[in-house]
Amino acid sequence: MKIIIIEDESFVAEDLAASLKNCSPDIQITAILTSVKEATAYFSENPAPDLIFSDIQLGDGLSFEIMQAVSIQAPVIFCTAFNEYALDAFKANGIEYILKPFSEEQLRKALHKYTSMRSLFNGNLALKYHKAMETISRLTPDASQTIMVKFRDRLLPFTLDKIALFYVESETTVLHCFNGKSYIMAESLEELEKRTAPLFFRINRQQLVSRRSIAEVADYFPRRLKVSLNIPFHKEIFVSREKRSRVLDWLARS
User: What's the number of domains the chain is made of?
Assistant: First the structure.
């Protein structure tokens, strides 16, 4: 069975590839694609595999955009952090999914479902992807969305309600939890900003902060803002004059 993985987090893609190979010796990972742009170009030049495993949110858009741009006659199993309620549309349209963090048992069940329903996947799948994209595009992240962090030899899941802020220190991105623990991340603040808005806001170049972590915002000379968190943090946080109004608008809406 030839499988293509579409996933922008390299350690998640590598873990998925290894887990799939453990599920069956007949599985071949044909390619690992990391963006909408890369996948669109690949499928424009190469034949479709037997099956695709794909994340939904990629760094440059939603994976459904790939299916809209090129005709892909292959079923997709989505590996995603969206919660089950949000994904009812996939079940209604016959598209399988597994939630991050996934286990080999979940992968085996998904592969078994694909095998048993293979004949049903023939024909044009564009309508299914279009309906799924409409549903997901209307969603905004909630507290149950999961961020995956590679820690030593493990993948740790953190729901957004457990994360106080992300920050950059010595050119390294750090996830800081409400419980005071911190973890180094591979993603940039730009990537995390897209995934966590509007629950988090990039209040300056170094910090992407959860609304739940903000205890107080006060005026600070000259026309800046000083942000106080409701947890201990080793740095003072300031908002520039240029971002002042945007931050206040975000706080008023959230």
Answer: 2
pTM value? Answer: 0.51
pLDDT for 50:
86
Enter the DSSP assignment of 107: H
Query: Which structural domain, as residue segments, surrounds residue 23?
Result: 2-137
pLDDT more than 90, % of the chain: 41
Q: Are residues 156 and 227 in the same domain?
A: yes
Judge whether 50 and 1 are in contact, CB under 8 Å: yes
Q: Name residues whose C-beta falls within 8 Å of residue 98's C-beta, 6 or more positions apart in sequence.
A: 77, 78, 79, 80, 106, 107, 110
| Domain of residue 96, CATH code | 3.40.50.2300
Selection from 84-98, 117-131, 137-151 with the highest mean pLDDT: 137-151
- Pair 14, 101 in one domain: yes
Average pLDDT of the residues in 113-138: 56
